[in-house]
Amino acid sequence: MPLVGIVDYGAGNLDSVARAVEYCGGKPLVTETPKDLRTATHIILPGVGSFAVGMKNLRMRGYEDELNEQVRVKKVPFLGICLGMQFLATLGTEPVDTPGLGWINGKVIRFITSSSDEKVPHMGWNSVEPVKASTLLNGIEAGKDFYFVHSYHFAANNPADILMTTPYCGGFASAVARENIFGVQFHPEKSQKAGFQILKNFLAF
């Protein structure tokens, strides 16, 4: 059974993510210290709220170095959810410019609406379109709906890092991937059957 380290840095839907992991066949381990990640076979970084505050908390609690060791060096499969995906970027702009983990080159920027039908934050169900093949997407049909809540999005520098897109405010990257690193802007733990399928696929790595 996969042992899934769920990073607790003071911002995230930890209980709902832990329950979803357990439902999908993993054993959740909500971390108390960065050292807890050393026994994990998989790592999930959830998150809600401001990029700047979240990264400050992550760094103050000592998680950045441990995450770099486990994910970048030891290649433990990693999934960032919502703000956790945005942390992968080089830079976030909410509310001020703040360096991210820098694992995938890009910038996190606020949505710019293009019609009266578009609101910020982007909240509720919306579709995703795969743009490249990945085992993370096994069983996920094009156009499948997932649950989103966010005002900022990840603008990746390299299109090859984009795994899925969503048609909102001109389109945005709703998932990114590079090697063992994955990020999804939507909340799989709130996206019912399709979200659970994403988690099951992740746990199979």
Task: Provide an overview of this structure.
The chain has 205 residues and is α/β, with parallel strands linked by helices. The protein has one domain (3-203): Rossmann fold (3-Layer(aba) Sandwich). Helices cover 23% and strands 29% of the residues. The protein is built from five helices and 14 strands. The strands form three sheets. An eight-stranded mixed sheet has the order 2-1-3-4-14-13-12-9. Strands 6-5-7-11 form a four-stranded mixed sheet, with helices on one face. The longest helix has 12 residues, at 192-203. The radius of gyration is 15 Å and the shape is globular.
Descriptive terms for the model:
205 residues; alpha/beta; Rossmann fold; 8-stranded mixed beta sheet; 5 helices; 23% helix
List unreliable stretches of 5+ residues: none
Strand order of the largest sheet: 2-1-3-4-14-13-12-9
Measured as a percent range, the helix fraction is 10-25%
The CATH superfamily turns out to be Class I glutamine amidotransferase (GATase) domain
Number of strands: 14
Task: Give the SSE map.
Blueprint: E1 3-6, H1 14-23, E2 27-30, E3 42-45, H2 51-60, H3 63-73, E4 78-81, H4 83-86, E5 91-92, E6 98-99, E7 106-110, E8 122-127, E9 129-130, E10 145-150, E11 152-156, E12 162-166, E13 172-178, E14 181-184, H5 192-203
Parallel strand pairs: 1-2, 1-3, 3-4, 4-14, 5-7
Antiparallel strand pairs: 5-6, 7-11, 8-10, 9-12, 12-13, 13-14
Short description:
It is built from five helices and 14 strands. With 205 residues, it is of the alpha/beta class. A hairpin with a 5-residue loop joins strand 5 and strand 6.
